[in-house]
Design brief:
This protein has a single domain (about 5-125), classed as 60s Ribosomal Protein L30, Chain: A, CATH 3.30.1330. It has two helices and six strands; from the N terminus they run E-E-E-H-E-H-E-E. It has helices at about 45-60, 90-100; strands spanning about 5, 20-25, 25-35, 70-75, 105-110, 120-125. The chain has a six-stranded mixed sheet with strand order 1-2-3-6-4-5, with helices on one face. Helix 1 (about 45-60) packs parallel to helix 2. The radius of gyration is 14 Å and the shape is globular. The mean pLDDT is about 95.
Length: about 130
């Protein structure tokens, strides 16, 4: 199966040691996305979440997919208390992007991300061909 490395500089520029996504058949593996380089960087975690989910869903759309095609996420956060227990506002953001069809998701607390960032999400989508 051919593996195609993808860049989306207008959506989420990648760094020098990774590509933003790898497409293999109908599977799309998306590198960790954050609010870096946006107005949400350094802002409230919920705004960082919105920007991050927007980037991920736009990448999936660029490949012909939709949010429901995202089947798995790993969410890394610097403060688990910002995310659990789930607040009505957090549930509302999730519903806004996934409309009742959320992906499998792991929430993992970590010590730190780059300064000003509180959340990073990597994802896998399976896009109908």
């Amino acid at each position: 199966m051919e593996k195609v490395r993808r860049e989306y500089p207008e959506i989420a520029p990648s760094g020098p040691i990774n590509v933003r996504a790898v497409r293999a058949g109908n599977m799309l593996f998306i590198s960790g996305c954050t609010a870096r380089g946006t107005e949400a960087e350094g802002g409230p975690p919920i705004e960082q979440l919105r920007v991050t989910l927007d980037k991920i869903t736009r990448i999936v759309a660029a490949e012909g997919g939709k949010p429901e095609d995202i089947v798995q996420m790993t969410t890394f956060v610097t403060n688990v208390a910002d995310w659990h227990p789930w607040t009505p506002e957090l549930i509302s953001v999730w519903e806004e992007y996934f409309r009742g069809q959320p992906p499998a998701n792991a929430l993992i607390g970590i010590k730190e991300l780059l300064p000003g960032l509180d959340i990073e999400i990597d994802s896998i989508a399976i896009i109908d061909l």
